[in-house]
Specification:
11 helices, single chain, 205 residues, 75% helix
Length: 205
């Protein structure tokens, strides 16, 4: 949210955040948000065209930040010379995950809306979309390993999706359970170790 926003807009945001966190997007009442904000319906529509537009205005900056950093990690690894990729495997993702933990801990409420309360909006598939990207780049990396002469077994896209879903879901448990930052970092590091060992086993490492 922008600093020094008009008082009316600030009231709408705060009332909306409370209502969405309590009831989710679908259960939230626009009438209740307006009432709790102490503004008129006309004042609301001066800023937003709908309840979904209000929800999007809260979560979009955080969706863009999280997906942007995630994509940066994926593409920067994929753009490395192929022969260098195995030795860098995990470095970009580790830095990205640490960044995401810090970001989540610094923006807990709007990120919880994005990840846990977005059913019925265009954001409800946010985590699924991240998983799809992870699967795509994982399959690309396995092809790189084969071109480098590694014996990598054929792994189905569906299996890769299951594994990536488990990993992403595990990372975002820190949002669901409001974990303190230090606990979140420790748990996520150990989760990554667990999945990395599993991938190495599957890839013949």
């Amino acid at each position: 949210m922008e600093e020094r926003m008009p008082a009316t807009l600030e009231k709408i945001y705060q009332a909306a955040l409370t209502e969405f966190l309590e009831k989710g997007f679908q259960g939230a009442s626009l009438r209740q948000i307006v009432k709790n904000a102490g503004v008129t319906t006309g004042a609301f529509y001066g800023y937003f065209s709908s309840k979904e537009a209000l929800f999007a205005s809260i979560v979009e900056p955080h969706a863009a930040a999280l997906m942007g950093r995630f994509m940066e990690a994926q593409t920067s690894f994929a753009e490395l010379p192929e022969q260098e990729q195995p030795e860098h495997m995990g470095q970009e993702s580790s830095a990205c995950v640490h960044w995401m933990v810090d970001y989540i801990c610094g923006h807990r409420e709007p990120v919880k809306l994005l990840l846990c309360k977005a059913e019925g909006t265009s954001y409800e598939h946010f985590v699924h979309n991240m998983v799809e990207v992870e699967v795509e780049y994982t399959l690309q990396y396995m092809e790189v390993l084969r071109r480098l002469g590694r014996e990598v077994p054929e792994l189905s896209q569906s299996l890769c999706h299951i594994i990536a879903s488990g990993m992403m879901g595990g990372i975002f448990e820190i949002v669901v359970h409001d974990m303190p930052r230090e606990q979140a970092l420790r748990d996520v590091d150990q989760l990554r170790d667990f999945y990395t060992a599993g991938w190495l086993k599957l890839m013949g490492g």
